[in-house]
Amino acid sequence: MIPYAAGVIVPLALTFWVQKSKKEKKRGVVVDVGGEPGYAIRNHRFTDPVSSHWEHISTLPELFEISCNAHSDRVFLGTRKLISREIETSEDGKTFEKLHLGDYEWLTFGKTLEAVCDFASGLVQIGHKTEERVAIFADTREEWFISLQGCFRRNVTVVTIYSSLGEEALCHSLNETEVTTVICGNKELKKLMDIGQQLETVKQTWPRNPVDPNFPLSADVAVIMYTSGSTGLPKGVMMTHGNVLATVSAVMTIVPDLGKRDIYMAYLPLAHILELAAESVMATIGSAIGYGSPLTLTDTSNKIKKGTKGDVTALKPTIMTAVPAILDRVRDGVRKKVDAKGGLSKKLFDFAYARRLSAINGSWFGAWGLEKLLWDVLVFRKIRAVLGGQIRYLLSGGAPLSGDTQRFINICVGAPIGQGYGLTETCAGGTFSEFEDTSVGRVGAPLPCSFVKLVDWAEGGYLTSDKPMPRGEIVIGGSNITLGYFKNEEKTKEVYKVDEKGMRWFYTGDIGRFHPDGCLEIIDRKKDIVKLQHGEYVSLGKVEAALSISPYVENIMVHADSFYSYCVALVVASQHTVEGWASKQGIDFANFEELCTKEQAVKEVYASLVKAAKQSRLEKFEIPAKIKLLASPWTPESGLVTAALKLKRDVIRREFSEELTKLYA
């Protein structure tokens, strides 16, 4: 919702007052809390952490039933009709599945509740006991959500598993939690059949007969959510109904004007707490949820048949969540199209973007004036159509979002981005930027359900006494902090602490600093810091973020070794951009794999990385001395990145050990 109508002429004095008051606004305030000494901040509007937004509701199934009854006749869950699947063959002989999808078909809140009750009854009829666990192993879809709510209705703990997990991690997750029932799609069923002999407790079947609900208590475990395993085997995080409800309650107070008119685009993995929490919020407020997938999201997505609408075009959502990697792709895709057009179109875009950027960096009123309306009509309207044209709010989480991408999305999509910070262990709760906060590079003030504290990490040189801002390891406490890791007491005791007042704290391993207004900025991660041969510290994540702004980079992993005085990098090259450069240079190549081996291409990409490094003011030792260009993308299916598109460093190091060895030779 735009706070000020386009075209309103604002007096200069009033504009100055807005700028001045915005600068002085406190979003988080210092608070005295228990536990390890540190610099703690709470949300400026709430003295104590919020547990529930509703006085007499303490569990998720209670909240869901009340919402369904209140909005019984409104549309709720939408899925696109599959018209046909077609196989296309490229010139090099590779085959691709393309989908022809129709319009969204909807279930009302009332019909959804009926389906949930039927599912809950089905669990009883197949003999599933309350103390036994159910696993949901499937892509995000309406049946996933219905199954989840059906299990909650019978106080059955749900184990969530990413559909992209490999066989070893899948077996580990199912066997460790002693799952007896697995809910899955056809694609995932094939994986289960392949490992059937290794599963120790799974049973199966499905009849129907209505039974009464068996609602849980707030302290009962709702979900055991397995992380995507960026290092080693995934860990199962135990979340109570009270934990998830606390995050849902907190988000309700942050996003402006949430209500029945909103339409939410659901495509991220529901096995990820960010998506599960977001859909829980939408269900609570009576909004519609339309399901899609990353491969069918836009008109040009990989699995969309040419001439068929992508999910966002068909749905026209008003609210979306996204991880930074997806927003980076939106930014890069728009830039590629603009660069390809060239000429007057590119000049007009660049001029309009520069004007809008100047306005946003100046004042909020300046960002929403008559000139904005002009550029929206002339330049940015077509770009907004890429995400359906109706987006009014974007939520970004899972990793820090670069300032460049945040500004690009603000301008081109025309919507604010609520950047949040949280982890599976904190039920996605931690911090969240407020609607009118136009700053970049920060993740906002503490959510109302959390206290956020910085504690000294002397070894890394981060102290709460640092000037001009306190720095340290980020520790989160509150009613959203989960119980710990399933059957892993040692790891639980390592990162979860209970203070003298009984509050649970989670030690994130991330390094942050607090700005004077109480907003948090993520600046490092303990695990990503490597000490080089001569004693310099390299923050791998920081360097990767700086270098990823190069247009030649699709993905990048920086590698440092304490036995050497320099770092190196594996660079997944952007095929469109590198091939475009090569064509202009008259370089012959048979395929992209061959192009990535050519010395000219490596030199060009490396020069671009050095330029990006200098723009970000990296130290000389932080700039990779050598790089290896890779042609094949890193995907969750390849096992090289998580479902949230985070690097699996250990897996990548093993996969490309030979290449890394050669870079140090």
UniProtKB/TrEMBL annotation:
Catalytic activity: a long-chain fatty acid + ATP + CoA = a long-chain fatty acyl-CoA + AMP + diphosphate
SUPFAM superfamilies: Acetyl-CoA synthetase-like (SSF56801)
Residue ranges constituting the AMP-dependent synthetase/ligase domain according to the UniProt record: 99-486
Cofactor(s) listed in the protein's UniProt record: Mg(2+)
Record's GO cellular component terms: endoplasmic reticulum; membrane
UniProt keyword annotations, A-Z: ATP-binding, Ligase, Nucleotide-binding
InterPro entries: AMP-binding_CS, AMP-dep_synth/lig_dom, ANL_N_sf
CDD domains: LC_FACS_euk1 (cd17639)
Protein name from the UniProt record: AMP-dependent synthetase/ligase domain-containing protein
Lineage per the UniProt record: Eukaryota, Viridiplantae, Streptophyta, Embryophyta, Tracheophyta
